Amino acid sequence: MLDRRSSTLLTVLLFVSASAFVEELDDSFMERKGAEDIWLIKFYAPWCTFCKQLDPVWHQIGSELRSLGSPIQVGKSDATASPGLAKEFRIRGYPAILMLKKDVTYNYLGPRTKDGIMDFADRVAGPLIRSLTSLQLFQHAMSRHDVMFVYVGATSQLKTNYTSAAETLIIGTYFFSATRDVLPKAVSLASLPAVVVFKDGTYFTYSEEHDGDLTAWINTERFPTFSQIDSYTLYAMGDSGKLVLLAMLEQKHLWDQSLRCKSLVEGVAAEHRDTYRSSFYFGFMEDSSYINGLVMDDIILPSFIIVNLSNDGYFLPLGAVETEQQLLDFMDGVLDGSVEIQGGNGVSQRIRRFVYDTKVTLMPIFTKAPLFGCFLLGVPLSIGVFLCYLCCKRRSSVDDDDDDDDDVALIATLSQRRKKSGNKKSD
């Protein structure tokens, strides 16, 4: 009993200690913050379940940043209690995470995990472009990042454009600069200055003539060609304009069929990269909830799907996909239009998706607590019926008033006619 109490007390003390590194912010925050301050802020609502789940992670982040001597200050704000601050940053949903650095706001759109948020904080709070001054530093950076952009050369217009791209895309990737002698000898550059992306065990050099706008090219190349993809990453991929070929797998156990699907996609990504990299990302997902919402049905696992996040469309194979050639035929059919797109973001699709999301949300409630589910659904329905009743009653009373006015007008008209008739007889 004593050990259990000691353990509980220790947990409480650790939580209180971690909470000391997270400041509660109110509407006065903008007036008292310093011009050079860097803040990592979480906006929440007391009723938000996801906010409550994130809370212990948030306090861990505050504690760890303080222990590392980071200049980042960590705060949180109840958007319902401090609506002015939430309005200042245009908060629309909860939990919302952002970083404020010298009056520039960077919104975090990645997974709500400690590692994801810490990586975002490190990336945005640090130098916009990090200098690699030795081969050892270059190799260390390569070991830490799946995708790495490097500017090579002296000051130029290309570097100006590179800096501008970094200001826009720093929330999603790291940017580096180096001299030619810092890069491995195996890296061959036709001319300097140059912008190079290192990923997938190789590298690609930016060409303005072939690749167009530098910012758009970086936004397209900032993901690995093949990787495990979560819903946040998939959503971010939509900005690139590329399609995403996914192997949809079971979440807990990967059976032989799932491993075969994953290997097929990985093989196509590696062997046909030059042919399809301009049009496709490749990956696999072990959580199908996002795709189920897109398709509005429970997708069969394992299976293949191609999604177009720019318009919420998707493509399904016309038949079984057992070989690499069948997978390539599926991709070619999507590109040449022979495989019809489904879904989309039209008005009817949005209504259907809203109905589906509502059903998915309410079904577990009715299954586990049917009485509470009936109450939850019955309250808004009752309010709606009551409002309709009031509207009908008001309309009925207005119609009655109109009828009374008509009757009064008719009586007045008849009275006037009688008077005129009496006057004529008197004459």
What's the structural blueprint in terms of helices and strands?
Elements: H1 2-19, E1 22-24, H2 29-32, E2 38-44, H3 49-67, E3 72-78, H4 83-88, E4 96-101, E5 104-108, H5 114-125, E6 130-132, H6 135-144, E7 147-152, H7 157-169, E8 175-178, E9 194-199, E10 202-205, H8 208-211, H9 214-221, E11 226-228, H10 231-237, E12 243-248, H11 256-271, H12 273-276, E13 280-285, H13 289-295, E14 303-308, E15 313-315, H14 324-336, E16 342-343, H15 347-368, H16 370-426
Parallel strand pairs: 1-3, 2-3, 6-8, 7-8, 11-13, 12-13
Antiparallel strand pairs: 2-4, 4-5, 7-9, 9-10, 12-14, 14-15, 15-16
Helix pairs in contact: 1-3, 7-9, 15-16
Membrane topology: Single-pass membrane protein
EC number: 5.3.4.1
Main location: endoplasmic reticulum
Number of strands: 16
Strand order of the largest sheet: 11-13-12-14-15-16
**CATH fold-level name of the largest domain:** Glutaredoxin
CATH class of the largest domain: Alpha Beta
Radius of gyration: 31 Å
Percent range for β-strand residues: 15-25%
Unreliable segments of 5+ consecutive residues = 6-18
Give me the secondary-structure category.
alpha/beta
Taken from the alpha-carbon principal axes, the silhouette is globular
The helix content, as a percent range, equals 40-55%
Chain-averaged pLDDT: 84
- CATH architectural category of the largest domain: 3-Layer(aba) Sandwich
Biggest sheet architecture: 6 strands, mixed
Number of domains: 3
Pfam families: Thioredoxin (PF00085), Thioredoxin_6 (PF13848)
Membrane topology: Single-pass membrane protein
Keywords: Disulfide bond, Endoplasmic reticulum, Glycoprotein, Isomerase, Membrane, Redox-active center, Signal, Transmembrane, Transmembrane helix
Signal peptide: 1-24
